[in-house]
Amino acid sequence: MIRLDNASYSYTKGSGVSNINLTIGDDEFAFIIGPTGSGKTTLLRMVYMDLLPQVGKVVVDEFDSKKIKSRKIPFLRRKIGMVFQDYHLLDDRNLFDNIALSLHVLGCAKDEIVDRVTESLEEVGLDGKEDRYPEELSGGEQQRACIARALVKDPDIILADEPTGNLDPVTSFEFIKLLEEVNREGTTIIMASHDYNLIKGRGHRIIEIQDGSVRQS
Amino acid sequence: MDKMMFLLSEGVKNLWRHKLTAFTAIFSTFLTLSVAGSLMIVGQNTNKIIEYLRGKYKIEVFFKENVSDKQIASVVEEFNKINGVRSTTLISKADAGKIFKSQFGENILDIIGYNPLPASCVVNVVKFQSDKMNIMPIVERIKSYPEVDEVQYQGRLIYRIETYYQKFVQIMTVLLILILIISVFIISNTVRLTIIAKKELIQALQLIGATRSFVKAPFVIEGVFHGLIGAILASAFLIVGLEIGSGITDSIIKLKIQYSPFVLIGILSFLSVLISFLGSSRAISRFLK
Question: How far apart, in whole angstroms, are the C-alpha atoms of residue A201 and residue B82?
């Protein structure tokens, strides 16, 4: 469960979020919608504790931003898979190694890594492309690779920050369907987007954020 | 185990991925260790010369005429207990007569009818001492015995040699420490370039839940490899240089340069690992702050 209690964070140059009160339950699929600069990314960064709220707190399962020590933050992040608009795939290694990186961090054995990477690539429809480098993949494939990277560690939560920002409408739609499949298997999904047309009518919770405050949830 | 292997392989792969940085780091380590190794060899050989000179230091003590052999033997025993004294050799009046005969070919009793040569003692001082050796306290102690008539020693020369040697050792130590500190900074800055180039990897690792030590390890391992390669090159360079140099000094002044290749390789490897570990740890720790 994710809970934000009166959480506020402001950057030195201005903007951020203020007084966010929000609870997202296990297995939930929630969209965060709002214009660019409204605070969507800040909110997500607070969830994976890249930013700790200056006022209030964020609680993700047993991790409480008020009490957490910086050396414990990696253990929170192991429960969270992240997907970004600009992919964040590493150019110096192939798809297999990009995805395997999360499992190396978890200390998995070599055989287990091979099995789990292969499985997650199949899940996102990228099987057979293990040896490709990121630059050899299309935008949609790169974003699916990001999902595979997030899924491979079997996370409790997936945070997606404008994941369809660089994708065409058809690929974006397929991407959302893929996330819905993942959600059906029990993973909490929080996806930030400014494209209302993409998410409306899908039956998921929509959290609207504007000028750093939640308008509607 | 698999995690360790992964970190190790990342460190080795990074050597190839960051060729320019690797070259700069290895070259600076090579230069540093070559200078440090040369200083150590010079220091070691200078120390050998000092030890040789100290072995030649001796204090000659002449006893008064009226002192019995028994008293002399007891005083010489006391000399042996003085701090800084290595050994003593007692030369009795009879021994002095024999030495006279061996040197001049005639018996002194035959010439003047009695033996005027005093009993004496040669006091040898210790060879191995880390700091400056001052024989004045030993001389003063010996002079304090009422049985002693005269003390002869190479005081001023010994003091001068020891003073120069001490200054030399101090300068060498400061130079060595300076070189090592500078090299830590050079390596640290070189590794920083790699880290800046690998900013994306570091961020990705942090996002997927890598601990600080997991993020640091490949960079530190890479740094240690730079250091070890630098140490191998510097050792090879110094050994070849020393063999050639030793051949030249041996043919000209019959002096072979003293050094142990294994000790040299060991010390340089240790220093390289130390400076590259410190340098790379400093760089990555500062980045992760």
Answer: 101
